[in-house]
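Batch job 17 of 40 flagged for manual review because the log was empty.
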Amino acid sequence: MIYEGKVVIVTGAAGGIGSHLAKAYAEAGAKVVLTDKELPEGSPLVEQIVKAGGAASFIAADLKRPEQIDELFHSVERQHGTIGILINNAGFGVWKSPYELSVEEWDDVLSVNLRGAFLCAREAAKRMKTRGGGRIVNIASTRAAMSEPFGEAYAASKGGLVAITHALAISLGPDNITVNCISPGWIETGDYGKLRPIDHEQHPSGRVGHPGDVVGACMYLTSPDNGFVTGTNMIVDGGMTRKMIYEP
């Protein structure tokens, strides 16, 4: 229970990897604040965490709106006090041909995935600095390094997130704040049992990733014992970005 009593903020926590991160930190004893634009109607996520003995609450915030980011951190501080860990997980993509992608769509993706992450990191760091330090982890993507068609805005935002990670690590290091990045590959958050053999076999690791792979990486990077690893981008993809793929 090395996270006992620590306040952890997880953005984009309403579903997917974010919800798994929130549950894991709560199970490890942290007081978890989940944030997203909204929880799906009837979502039992917070209730499930609490029923299992964890401490969790939800605060809605649209990361496209800087004023809501400010209010989010003020609310967390009022309700819970010291913020020890921030997981910048929120993100989405618009998958369109670059010939058709609008300026508004481009700006929407970058404002949440990159600007939102920076503003959250800055607000968290202001508070961590006055209390002896903290841990920030940005969830990027292997799409920062490789692409399928029509992912320009998403790739740009995740590439920017990788870059801003090492920039923040250097700027915030003197305040005992580590800043790291995780770039997941294929992490299946749906029905893992429905995956095909070829889905697993194409990975050098022999399987598709699951949320626990990201959780484990995140737990390592935010551990109180980790004061040395900072500014890194940990690729969690089963080896796919290291695999040469040529058509036979």
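Reviewer: the log was empty due to a logging misconfiguration, but the result itself is present. The longest strand covers residues 177-184. Unflagging and moving on to job 18.
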